[in-house]
């Protein structure tokens, strides 16, 4: 059976390092790092994510602001808020929670964030710096950066490995590939048009799935002993589906009974565990690292601004 990689433990380690650094700034008489989180509309999942981010900021001694704007907000109104936050010296990081309502010009909004305050790493300047291999002065996207921390802190080799990334989104797949290339992996990026995906994936010592399809990656995608990183987060509400993915794991059925759902990644946990050497669980794998990296990025933005 595959060894489980404990993302929660590594995220806690990162958060504790960030917290110590924030205490250090306080001891030195400086203001704390500041994060502004902007939420437009009432998407239930976004409300939960924004709440978690603001709560973590408070726990770590950050200054944080939450800006809740109505669904009817125009692109111009959102741009006006971004301009105000760009000019605010107490704010080091600006995060606009995605997805934005359809009528808002998303890329225009992301482009308007000052690159040195762009803690999501989506501004073209930060994307360019990442691809130039200049990560030290870039802010890089939180989820793929969290995967790198997970690998490095678990002593899993990257340099020289055959690595396959499934998914080419700008949030996960593409920056993941760039971060791996910068660390000398041999990277193949797969997507919905890839021919014979299982055969390509079986080449990988390190397989990273960011697809958005529950349990899609089965044992036939995995080279025996490979490390499998599951970025996917998908709700499972049907007990029969839960049995397919998790066997008789009572905790999963209890989660569906009590909260209406449990979570599965893009990797089929039961089948993958029979072939993989190491695998990230869902929940408790990549998810906790994403939020830890947001706070680490905000601290980095604070330092870059000094
Ligand atoms: P996306 O929809 O933007 O991109 C999905 C990618 O998967 C696309 O590039 C597409 O080409 C590829 N794809 C789709 N079907 C495929 C198939 N059948 N075969 C091969 N490739 C296929 O999604 P995203 O934003 O990159 O997110 C991917 C997953 O990661 C989702 O489950 C999302 O919820 C999760 N996610 C998790 C975190 C986290 O913190 N753990 C953060 C971001 C996203």
Strand content: 15-25%
User: Biggest β-sheet: count, sense, barrel?
Assistant: 6 strands, parallel
* Distance separating the two termini: 48 Å
What name does CATH use for the topology of the largest domain?
A: Rossmann fold
Number of domains: 2
- Described by the principal axes of the CA atoms, the overall outline is globular
Annotated CATH homologous superfamily of the largest domain: NAD(P)-binding Rossmann-like Domain
DSSP summary: helix tally: 12
Q: How many beta strands in the DSSP annotation?
A: 11
Quick synopsis:
By secondary structure, the chain is α/β, with parallel strands linked by helices. The protein has twelve helices and eleven strands.
Overall description:
This protein has two domains: 29-114, Rossmann fold; 142-287, Rossmann fold, CATH 3.40.50.720. The strands form three sheets. A six-stranded parallel β-sheet has the order 1-11-8-7-5-6. It has a three-stranded parallel β-sheet with strand order 3-2-4, sandwiched between helices. A two-stranded antiparallel ribbon has the order 9-10. With 306 residues, it is an alpha/beta fold. The model has no long low-confidence stretch (mean pLDDT 97). Strand 2, helix 2 and strand 3 form a beta-alpha-beta unit. It is 43% helix and 15% strand. Nicotinamide-adenine-dinucleotide (NAD) binds at residues 143, 166-169, 171-173, 190-192, 194, 197, 210-213, 231-234, 266, 286-287, 290.
């Amino acid at each position: 059976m595959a060894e489980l990689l404990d993302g929660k433990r590594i995220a806690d380690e990162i958060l504790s390092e960030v917290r110590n650094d924030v205490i250090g700034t306080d001891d030195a008489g400086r203001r704390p790092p500041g994060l502004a989180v902007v939420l437009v509309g009432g998407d239930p999942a976004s409300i939960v994510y924004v709440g978690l981010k603001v709560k973590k900021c408070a726990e770590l001694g950050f200054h944080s602001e939450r800006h809740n704007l109505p669904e009817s907000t125009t692109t111009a109104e959102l741009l006006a808020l971004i301009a105000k936050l760009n000019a605010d010296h107490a704010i080091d990081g600006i995060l606009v929670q995605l997805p934005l309502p359809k009528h808002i010009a998303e890329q225009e909004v992301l482009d308007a964030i000052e690159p040195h305050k762009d803690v999501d790493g989506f501004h073209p300047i930060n994307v360019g710096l990442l691809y130039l291999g200049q990560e030290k002065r870039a802010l890089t996207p939180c989820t793929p950066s969290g995967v790198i921390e997970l690998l490095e802190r678990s002593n899993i080799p990257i340099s020289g490995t055959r690595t396959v990334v499934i998914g080419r989104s700008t949030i996960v797949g593409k920056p993941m590939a760039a971060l791996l290339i910068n660390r000398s992996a041999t990277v193949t990026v797969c997507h919905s048009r890839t021919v014979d995906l299982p055969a390509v994936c079986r080449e990988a010592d390190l397989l990273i799935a960011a697809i958005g399809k529950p349990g899609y990656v089965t044992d036939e995608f995995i080279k025996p002993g490979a490390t499998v990183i599951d970025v996917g987060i998908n709700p499972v509400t049907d007990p029969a589906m839960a049995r397919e993915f998790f066997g008789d794991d009572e905790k999963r059925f209890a989660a569906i009974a009590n909260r209406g759902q449990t979570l599965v990644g893009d990797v089929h946990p039961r089948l993958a565990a029979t072939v993989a050497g190491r695998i990230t669980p869902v929940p408790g794998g990549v998810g906790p690292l994403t939020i830890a990296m947001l706070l680490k990025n905000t601290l980095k933005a604070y330092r870059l601004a000094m």
